[in-house]
Amino acid sequence: MLTKYWQQFKSGTDIRGCASEGVPNEKVNLTDDNVRRMTEGFVLWLAAHEKKEVSALTVAVGHDPRISAERLRADVVQALKGGGVHVLDCGLSSTPAMFMVTQDTPCDGSVQITASHHPFNRNGLKFFTRAGGLDGPDIEAILQHAQDGDRPATKTGSVEKINYMERYCARLREMIKKGVGAEDYEHPLKSFHIVVDAGNGAGGFYAKDVLAPLGADTSGSQFLEPDGRFPNHIPNPENETAMKSVCSAVVKAGADLGVIFDTDVDRGGAVDAKGNEINRNRLIAVASAIALEGCQGGTIVTDSITSTGLKEYIENTLGGCHHRFKRGYRNVINEAVRLNSEGIECPLAIETSGHAAMKENYFLDDGAYLDTKIIIESAKLRRQGKTLDDLLKPLKEPADAKELRFPIFAEDFRTCGNKIISELTDYAGEQAGWTVAPDNYEGIRVSLDEPHGNGWFLLRLSVHDPIMPLNVESDSKGGVETILKELAPFFGRCRNRLDLSPLSA
């Protein structure tokens, strides 16, 4: 069993912690010794998984541009080399590229040093094999090795520097050439103006090494240079400031399209020519339209907080099936893989955060791949005199929406949260105009008729934190407040268990 100390590093399917000073009350716990021990734990896990001697392994290492990246990279390489591993040092890389390197080179696994969109002082380790990213139990096994001090026998490995990002970019360029099928095959994006916002993360390559060589005008692109302190905005397509920034840049440049990435490029978002976000439900709608081309009746797996209008769009407009599942990108991906294994054709798993994984791409959540597919679709629509806006016209969007996050007081927050969900389920069954959704995979989702708010709410437990998020949407202006008033008597029962201050914020 992991102690509380080592358990703190497990963040779903990643290892994360504090790697740099600079934030009050956050002490560095990703020390050199801890990172080396975690890497040695991965080596032992990988050797067992691949049924190889440690000294026969080849492992690729990449990183995002965080200020702690070089220190952690040195720790990881030292630990790998010290066990006799042959190391492919990939340098600055996107997370999806660090999976693809396992497909395109003779390596057994890879380590990406990243903490996604988290603040500059955070960092972490993400692991891949040829089969994909590791799951939660695998991370626990790695941390158990680290906790127990398990180490491979001391040997001397080797380090080889490679530029895998060059091959990764070439693959994306070839996708666009084939997908657009322009008369000028080598320059399919000629006269197409696309703004890229990399947020000073690892995604600047997309403008310079993918779009520009294909003839795209990328003027107006911003924050392409890597800067681990992220001085302009958080690299996160879910962040309001980040999205406002890229929307403004697209309008200012008079561009046809904008794309934005998170720090390590496993998530993406887009902006249309009018400066409107293609994000969350709109992003899922576009991705679903693309994924269901040639897959009539296919199933789209999403997380639990998608809108009623999106379900109608996927099923009534696109002719697909919407499978609303749990929050957590790995949960969504694993569910899509499960459905396919049972013979249910599922071409796409996508979370409202921007994590999107397509069956055709190993069910890898890759923001650059998603945005590449959107660019191809945009180019094809333009030949028909249409835009993404035409594609999205049938999508019914909520008139009112809000998310509130209630901290849980109890130390055993999962037990407390599940009890509240159980109580709310019973309460909902007694309320006039309320209908509990039949497909609840997490928390409780309830639809309310027009007199009671004309919308829905979902109360659930956070994937990792002692928090209960409440998502509320309505098809009527002011409907969210009506729904919250409907919920007020129930939340009055939870004052000693939840911090309800968000209700009055």
Could you please describe the fold and organization of this structure?
The protein is α/β, with parallel strands linked by helices. It folds into three domains: 4-162, Alpha-D-Glucose-1,6-Bisphosphate, subunit A, domain 3 (Alpha-D-Glucose-1,6-Bisphosphate, Chain A, domain 3), CATH 3.40.120.10; 167-392, Alpha-D-Glucose-1,6-Bisphosphate, subunit A, domain 3 (Alpha-D-Glucose-1,6-Bisphosphate, Chain A, domain 3); 400-504, 2-Layer Sandwich (TATA-Binding Protein). 36% of the residues lie in helices and 20% in strands. It has 15 helices and 22 strands. It has helices at residues 4-7, 32-50, 69-82, 95-104, 136-148, 164-180, 205-211, 240-253, 281-291, 308-317, 329-341, 367-383, 388-392, 413-428, 479-492, and strands at 10-11, 14-18, 58-63, 86-92, 109-113, 122-129, 132-133, 158-161, 194-197, 257-261, 268-272, 277-278, 299-302, 321-324, 348-350, 356-358, 364-365, 400-407, 434-436, 444-448, 455-459, 467-474. Strands 1, 2, 3, 4, 5, 6, 7 and 8 form an eight-stranded mixed sheet that branches. It has a five-stranded mixed sheet with strand order 14-13-15-16-17, sandwiched between helices. The protein has a five-stranded antiparallel sheet with strand order 18-22-21-20-19, with helices on one face. Strand 3 (58-63), helix 3 and strand 4 form a beta-alpha-beta unit. Helix 2 (32-50) crosses helix 3 (69-82) and helix 6 (164-180) packs parallel to helix 12 (367-383). 52% of the residues are buried.
